[in-house]
Every structure is written in structure tokens, then in C-alpha cells.
Amino acid sequence: MDAIRSYLQGDGAVILPEMELVLFGLGILLIDFWIEERDKYLNAVLALAGTLFSGGTLWMLRGRVAASGGVLVGFHESAVVDGFVLFFGALFLASTALVILLSVKFMQIEKEQEGEYYALLLFACVGMMLMASGVDLIVMFLGLETMALSFYVLTGFLRREKRSNEAALKYVLLGAFSSGILAYGFSLLYGLSASTNIGAIGAALGQRNQLVQAILRSQQPGEAGEQMRQLLAARLPVALNFDPFTLQILPMLAFVLVLVGLLFKVAAVPFHQWAPDVYEGAPTPVSAYISIASKTASFALLLRLLLLVFASSQPTWIYLIAGIAIASLTWGNLAALTQTNIKRLLAYSSISHVGYILLGLVGGNETGLIGIAYYLFAYVFMTAGAFAVVIVLRQKGLIGEELEDLNGLYQRSPASAVLLLIFMLSLAGIPPTAGFMGKYFIFLSLIESHHPLLALFAVLYIVPALYYYFRIVAHAWLKQPGEAPQPLMTSAQAIALGVAVFVSLAAGLYPEPFYKLAKYAFGQ
Amino acid sequence: MDFLAHHILSVVLFTPLVGALLLLFVPRERDAVHRIVGNLFGALGFLVSLPLLRWFKPGWGGFQFEETADWIPSIGAKYHLGIDGISLLLVMLTTFLGMIAILSSWSAIKLRQKEYYILLLLLQVGMIGVFVSLDFFLFYVFWEVMLVPMYFLIGVWGSDRRLYAAIKFFLYTLAGSVVMLLAILALYFYAPVEPGATRTFDIPTLLAAAQTFTDPLKVWLFWGFFFAFAIKVPMFPFHTWLPDAHTEAPTAGSVILAGVLLKMGTYGFIRFSLPLLPADTAMRAKIIHIVIFLSLVGIIYGAIVCLMQKDMKRLIAYSSVSHLGFCTLGIFALNPNGLAGSVLQQINHGISTGALFLIVGVLYERRHTRLISEFGGLATPMPNFAAIYLIVSLSSLGMPLLNGFIGEFTILQGAFQVSKAWAAWGSLGVVLGAAYLLWLYQRVMFGPVTQFANEELPDLNLREYATLVPLVILAFWIGIYPKPFFALIDKPVQEIVHRVNPDFYKAEHANLAAPELQASRVQVK
């Protein structure tokens, strides 16, 4: 007992939230054997309890983190808990809880109520939390794979459905491929620095960068170049024979590989092709989960890597990121215009959201980072809400994924239509909603960092985005209802929708506390 | 009473919201209740705005009835309201036309009445909010949020091509306003602040700070704001959303679109664009010439297109392009006459064009068509209607003794002081205006009754009188005794000209040697 207690005082505290989720997941797998078909909802209850428990632990860790100077380090500096982890961990737990609430009735209709489903949801969440809290390449990679493997299975969970199987296969193949690329990038990083700790790697790459700058300067003609040459000859004579370009090839290659691997996961153009198919084929709650949580987690990983490991070369890579952001905005928005399946449409819209979030990195200042956190926060709740409405539409005998299925939703279920409108406004970025505030910070950071043209591009893409979001609204509000039955909302769905709409509106009408939250994520 | 006096603007702003929230709780089937509550809050919205007129001090400069509260302290956005004479008139126009538009829907709207009245009331909140906000963040929220109810008003209750018109309206206006968002952010960022202090979105502060900006930055900001307002006004060539939206919208929607929504653009020009004009004369002249050119093209083009229309509502919609061209002409003449005339003409246009749309609504309710060729000789079955329609037409085309004349005349006078050519082209627009309005009147009202269905059309009923007569009275009032209106505008107009075009007053002082010139200028008012 004492051993456990002292463990929890030290390393244990760092992964306590994850441990709890794992225990709850295992518990679900165990009790699933005993409960009857009609009591299967107990699995969901247990999973929900797990997220709440873990959330409570995160909340209590807040004090410990503050007491130990803002960061709690464990496992020989391979995992930490800081504001960043607390913010993103809470976001992952919230999305998991929302998805659990939305899954109960959906899986009941699909007749796939196995406990593994909820256990996998929790395991995926564990992976995501490790992605945020890892500061060691191995922990990060393990977290990423834990999440990805859970998602592959979840995507194919509708065993009897062809689309689901196809989506899972696509996801596995492309996902494994991208993980391989990422792992290769990681191995290069290890080779460059002889360490897997991202702080150490960042320092090593920084030194390398300084050396390159020094060599470059020593090759310049004139007084300054001569001084630098002498300095190098005295300190590091070998360096005079190095070619600065060759020195930079490996770090650049590592950067590109890591970036490509992660851009696959966040579904940025040109690595986005899997997203629409997977979203369409996966069970809708899982589509929502991939869209909100997996994307957010990959962004957390991306932020840590870019800001710690590759910080020294930031002035160069922002152009690459800017190009990818523009491509994502363009392709995501244009491809979404003609979709007729709501899930595919939301997939393309999520690609365009990735573009906006990446632009926050281009801005790169404090406002930009806060903007990314705020945007992701808003994105989780408004996208979950939009998917939730699609899930509510799923009734016995109606798939409810096509735009036509929304026709006359207003007459059939006014409440869902109003909620849908709010989520669409928020996704499009019309004030006073959370989505607008997220965009606001991103645009402001672009202005602050003197990228007015990028900012202009970014704002103008709101216009086509509004067009396709309002195609959804037009179907729900302005078209006459057909034969479709009245969707019935269960109380679990109502709770999930209520939370999503509350956050989407509150973070737009009174952003102050949410702003503080986003600021806390980056250590203030 | 004390609370009311200190928070009068909030009360005016949120009264319609209270109505909308109340309606939310009335069961859907109780149509009569929705109608009554909707009308009640329409009227209440106007009533609570009346004390503004009484308590407003025309002689004071700056903003009155100011209210400030923290909203998002971390980024410096505040809940800051306040009005000057210009926004006072526009707020009054909004509440007044809102009341009339709601009343005009009594029998025209039979479908989904609950949502209809909720949306109309929400629209009121958005529009009043735009005119009373003194914080850019708040302003932008109202500016955007008002698009949503209008989208639904056109999309649900509009005529055949309503879906197309609704989304077109939304996208056009949005395209302009997102660029404005960038301009606002740039203004916010470039305005100097003390180190360590939070930046601010306060409109008076930022506009004062803008005076210290370099000219190229001011030019960029000017164009950033320009598109939002030019699309809203709408200026040629950004006007193509207008005929569709106005034609397809239900009557009340058209009245509000033409009467109030377009004024948000001209209001923006006056309040935000003018202070951003560069100080350098060459740069400034270039901008002014472009804007004036577009205004003049709008005046003439709008009028010519009107002559070709077959649909009454479309004709009146295009006449707005022409009339709003006068308003922008007056604004960018940059002298007191032009500006004051422009503000008054905005009010006039709200009254006259609002009334014209109501008149089309009256005919549409009786015949369910808006084609001019379907009518003819209506003066015989509907004599009282004919009289009111004639007065409204004359007021719109600028007949002396009616409101349109005062506005257009003052604007043209302002334009004349700057350039005779501007005034000449503008006058051509007045002539064409008389042509299309009178020709329309002739085709619809005079001659023999051409269609059997028109022979027994009932004349105006009591409710229709109640919507039209107040507008006619106002038209006469402004036409005969515009002094109280000018009194409200004079002070803010002077302040603006002082800030934007100080040379004008210097020239004025030089002219004091020739007092008879002065006298002739003042007399017109």
C-alpha cells in the first residue's frame, strides 16, 4: 500500500489519468461477459464514469502542477503534466464522453453493442493523452499508435457493413504508411542527437543550426567573415571543411518526414484522401471521434514537436506550413461545395478547418498559439454537435446521412433544426459563436505577424464555407419534409447536444473564461 | 425612470429581443397570439425609442446616452453604446419602420407565423445594434448576426426564387464583411497603445488614433472597410444581390431591406470610412474620384434599368440603387451640405421606398402578381389607394413640398460646391427618376381597367391605412419643415467635416468677406 502511495506521489501521478482510463477499459471488457443484451448500456455508463474519473484526476493534478512550478515531470523526463497536457487531456476526455453519449442508441440500432467498443474508445483516449503528455519520441509514438490502432478497429466496427470494412482497410493501410514515415523521421532525429528526449533533440538541432549560421557567415567576404573564420579555426577547425548545405540535409529530411506523418493524421491537403472515405464508412459516432479527438491529439503532438524540436528553424518552415494551410483551405472548401453526403461534407469541412489551425502556426506568436487552442476547443464541440444531429437522424430504417434526409427537419424536430443552425453558424465562423472567436485569434495573429495576404485568403474562404454549411441549413429549414419519420432524441443524445451547443454559444458570447483556458494551455 | 434614463439605449436595443424570447414560449398553433405579441413588441420597440428624441441634446457634440460595461477584458472588447444625431435618426427610422413592417405582415404571412415574428424581432435587434455600437467588436457581431434572420425571412417566406436570393444575399454581404473584419483587426493592431496596456476596440478611440496613421496604411484600411459598405449600400457594381433579394423577400422583408439595411452601408461610410481618408491631397482625390464615379454610375444606371423592368418590385429595387447613389455622392462631397443632405436622404429613402414596397405588397395581396402588365386602370376601383400611391411616388422622385426634394436638393447643392459636373450628372438621375416612377404609376393606375380581375379590387382597409398614412405624414413633414431633422444632424456633420476636411472651414472663413454667399447657403435649410 505504501509502495503504491509513494508511486502515486512520484511517477505515478504523471500517468494517473491514463491509468484510470485503462482500468475502466479493462473493467468494461470484464463485465461485458456477464451483462445481458438489454443491459448493454451499462458498458457505456462505465466508460462514461471512467472519463469523469479521469477528468476529476486531471482537475486535482492542476494544483500539483502549479505547486511544482508549472510542470510535473516523470519517468526520467519522458512524460510530463503541464498546462498543455491538462488542457488537451480535458479536451480529449470531453470528446470521448460526448462520443460515448452519442454511441449508445446508435450502436443499439446497428446491433453492435459489444463492450469492446467502449473499451476501445477509452484506449484511444489513453493514446491521445499520452501523445499530449509525452516529451520522448518513444512515448509519443506509442501514444500515437495506441490511438491509431483503436481507431482502425472502431472504424470497421460495423462488421456486416461493406462500407465500414472498406473504410477500415483504407484507414489501416494509409495510417500504417504514415506511421512508418513518422517513425523514419523519428529515427533520423535520434540519429542526429543520440537522444529520444525532445528537449535534448531540440537543443542538438539548435546547435547544429547555429553552427551552420557560423559557417555561412565565415564564408562571407569582408571583416565579419574573416573574424568568424578565425573564431572557428580556433574553436572547431573541422567545421571549416563542412558544407553548410549538407549539414542541413538530415534535419530537413527529418522535419519533412515527421511533418508528413502528422499531416496524414490531421488530414491536411495533400495527405487528406483517406478522410472522406473513412468518415463516410465508419459508424457516425466514430467519424465524430476521428474528426474531433484524433485531429486534436495529432495537433497537440505537432505543436510539441514543431515548437520544441524544430523551434530553431521556424522562420523557414512557416512557409511550408503556410502553403499546406492554403492548399487545405482551398481543396477542403471547394470539394465540400458539391458533396451530398453530410459525413463526407463534414470531412471536407474539417480539412478546411485544419487549414485555419495551421495558419495559427504561421502567425506563431502568442495570439496564434492561443488561437490554435481556442480554435481546437471550439472545433471539438461544434463538430461533435454537427455529427450529433446526424446521429439523432439515424433511426430504425433511416440512415439519415444524405442531405436529402435532412429535408424539412424543422417541421419534424424544431429543436434539432435550431441546434443544427447554431453548429453550422459556428463552423462557418459567424459571430457570436465559438467558431468565430477561434478564427478571430487566428486572423489577428496573421495581422500581427504581418501576413496580410494570407489573412485575406483565409477570411475570404469563409464565404464558400458558408455556402456549403448553409446548404445543410437550407435542407433542414427551407425544404418540405418528405416521408421521413420524426427523429426521436434519447436523453443521452440530448445531454451531448446540450453540452455542445452550450459551449458553442458560450465561447462566442462570453469568451473571457475560455480565453483564459486557452492561455493556460501555453503556460500562463 | 432613472434606470431607463441611464440605460435607454440598452432598453431600445433589447426590447425586440424580449419579444422574440416571449414568442419562443407561445405554442406553435396559436397564430393569433404570435401576431398580437409580435405587433405589440414592434410598437413597444418604437415607443421606448421615443424618449431618445426628447432627451437628446442636439447642441452637444460627441456621443450621448453612452453606456459602458466590460465584455471581454482580455482583448479589450467592451459593451459600449452611444449615439449622435446621425445614429439617432437611423435608430428612430429602424424602430419606426420595424413597427410598420410587422404590422404590414398581419394578413400577408400565413405560414410558420411563430418563426416569422421571432426573426423579424431578432432582425430589429441586429440593426439597432449596428447603429448604437461604439465598440468595433460589438459592431461586427451585430453586423453579421443580422444576416441570419434576413436569410430566413427571404428563404422561407419569399417568392419563387427565394432559395437563390437568400443565399446570394448572405454570401455577397458576408464577402464584404469578412474583409472588413480584417480591416478592423488591422486598425485594432496598429493603433498605438501604452506598453503593457490591453488594446481596445473602442470606436472613438480607434478612429482618433487612425488620424496618426501613415497615408498608405489609411488607404489600405479605407479599402478594407469600403467593400463591406459598398456591397451593403449597394454601390454599382456590387449591387447585383439587391434586385434578387428585394424582389423575392416578403413585403416586410423588402421594407426593412430597403428602409434600414442599406443604410447600414451609408452609416458605415460616414462613421468609419471618412475618418480613414488619407490626408495627402493626391491620394485622397483619387479615392474620392473613384467613389464619386461609382455613385454617379449607380444613379444613372439604376434609373435606366428601372425603365426596363416588367416587375414592379424589381423596378423599385433598382430605384434603390439610384437613390442610394445620391446618398454616397453626398457623403463623399465632404462638405456639410452634402453630408447633411445624405443623412436626410437616407431617412427619406427609408420612408418613400418603404412605402412603395408596402404599396406593391397591397397589390400583391390582392392579385398575387407583381407584373406591371397585369395591372392598369386601378385608380377606378381603388381611388384612395391611388391618392396615397401618387403622393408616395412624388415623394420618391423628389417633388418639392415632399421629403425627397429636400434631400436630393441639399445633396446636389453639396456636390455643386465641389464640382458642377457631379451635380449635372446627379440632376440627370432626378429627371430619370421622375420618368420611371411616373411611367410606372401611369401604367398601373391610369387608363381603362385592362383585366377583369382588377375591376372589383377592394380599396385600402384600416390596417393598410395604418401602415401607409404615418409614412405619408412624415413625407410631408420633412418636405415642408425639415428644420428639426437638420437640427439633429448639423452638429455631428460639422464635427465630421472638421475632422475629415478641415480645409472646407478655412475656405468658409475666407468667404466671410462675401456674406451674401453665406446667407444663400444657410437659407436652404
How does this model look, in words?
The complex is a heterodimer of chains A (524) and B (525). Chain A has 524 residues and is mainly alpha-helical. Chain A has a domain of 215 residues. Chain A has 22 helices and two strands. Chain A has a two-stranded antiparallel sheet with strand order 1-2. The two termini of chain A are 36 Å apart. The relative contact order of chain A is 0.09. The model of chain A has no long low-confidence stretch (mean pLDDT 90). Chain B is mainly α. Chain B has a domain of 203 residues. Chain B has a two-stranded antiparallel sheet with strand order 1-2. In chain B, helix 15 runs antiparallel to helix 19 and helix 16 packs parallel to helix 19. The interface between A and B is medium-sized, with 30 and 32 residues.
Question: Keywords, please?
Answer:
heterodimer, A: 524 residues, mainly alpha, two-stranded antiparallel sheet, 2% strand, globular, B: 525 residues, 22 helices, 2 strands, disordered C terminus
Please summarize what this structure is.
With 524 residues, chain A is mainly α. Chain A has helices at 2-9, 11-31, 41-67, 83-110, 115-133, 137-155, 162-193, 198-218, 223-235, 244-266, 274-281, 284-309, 314-336, 342-363, 366-393, 409-412, 414-428, 434-448, 452-460, 462-477, 491-509, 512-521; strands spanning 71-74, 79-82. Chain A has a domain at 310-524.
